[in-house]
Amino acid sequence: MANRPIFLDNQSTTPLDPRVLEAMMPWFSGNFANPHSSEHAMGREAEVAVEAARGEIAALIGADPREIVLTSGATESNNLAIKGAARHALKVEGDRRRVITLASEHKCVLESVRDLAAEGFEPVVLPVGADGLLDLDDLIEALVVPTLLVSVMAVNNETGVIQNVAEIAAVVKEAGALLHVDAAQGVGKIPLDVALGIDLMSITAHKIYGPKGVGALYVRRRPRARIAPLFSGGNQERGLRSGTLSPPLVIGFATACRLAGAEREQDAARIGGLRDQLWAALQRDIPGIRLNGHSSERIAGNLNVMFPDRTAIAVMQAAPDLCVSTGSACSSAEIEPSYVLRAMGLSVAQAQHSLRIGIGRFTSPADIDLAAALIAASDAPISQARMQA
Predict the structure, then answer these.
(1) Do residues 104 and 172 share a domain?
(2) In sequence order, which ranges of the chain are alpha helices (DSSP H)?
(3) What is the DSSP annotation of 250-303?
(4) What is the mean pLDDT of each run of 10 residues along the chain (389 residues)?
């Protein structure tokens, strides 16, 4: 038995890097001022720190600090990008009403796009292939109809599959549409620069060893990507996102961004080696185990595997000291097959046999060895007939 749980669910969240915590601590009690209270010294100091942090967040994605709108996280950023772009289009009476996304996107993107149908827009949800990738021809065909916005995830939160953002951006720009990229799972793990042709980009701190509860939306300035705010308030964040900012969270986010930029390559190399070590052990000990999603176009830390004769829930129950998941943590209250895997063509039973394993910065080789042993020992077979369902 492990002395502590082995955390291999780094796509749902990541532990707070101690260096991030150290940067945050003085702003909880040393200077607790409101950064919008610039009338006094403590408020001005907090404001200066927040603006310096904004610059560090922007630097990670090649943006101008003035293009960063601070939010509570990726879900808010995705809603603001998609609904904000659509509602601005309504105000200026544009004639583009089509909004395109993929069947494998995060729930908050899919629901945001579908919500727009009630506001007079045309949601279009494109399929993905068995490898989890978009067929560019499908997008080109969908863009024949004048389109307002395309929303595509850089890295899938369940399979770790990396979409070709550069190719997608070129097609979207040719069609005159806006491109929104949900980069919550990709930023800090793969090279991502807004210069690829991205108009709107959502990122969050807690996927890169930062605090929960803070994120950002990149909004291109030149030429300007126009969005409408989602709610009313004190007109903070240039009127696009009202509400008092939390200096500890913003500064922690910025520190996480700086570390991610500096350590991305070494993190990817080490984490990728651990992933390959685990995958080799699982293939050796569990004949017939399969990888879900593209074998190479995926981030270093992700394994999404399908067991031949056991359900993912059975594996998790047999290995309670192993922290893994069956799919999107945001939908974990609903015990149902992953819609992402179903969109890739897996049957209900195959999706139920699939487990997401996420390796991260603080995963050790010993963790990997023990995880491989626990998974291999979790023998809960079911009939092969059910696998064909």
Answers:
(1) yes
(2) 18-24, 26-29, 41-60, 74-91, 107-115, 136-142, 165-174, 247-285, 312-318, 339-343, 348-352, 365-377, 384-387
(3) HHHHHHHHHHHHHHHHHHHHHHHHHHHHHHHHHHHHSTT-EE-S-SSSB-TTEE
(4) 82 98 96 94 95 98 98 98 97 91 98 97 98 98 98 98 98 98 98 97 98 98 96 90 96 98 98 98 97 97 96 95 80 73 97 97 98 87 42
At 358 the three-state DSSP class reads strand
Say if CB 260 and CB 60 are below 8 A apart.
yes
Q: Residue 137: which CATH number?
A: 3.40.640.10
Residue at token pair 């069956």 = 326
Tokens of 255: 């520190």
Query: Whole-angstrom Cα distance, residue 90 to residue 211?
Result: 35
Catalytic residues, by residue number, are 330
Q: Are residues 64 and 101 in the same domain?
A: yes
Report if pTM > 0.90.
yes
CA–CA separation, 106 vs 83, rounded Å?
Answer: 15
Q: How many helices (H) does the chain have, and how many strands (E)?
A: 13, 12
Cα–Cα dist 79/231, whole Å:
11
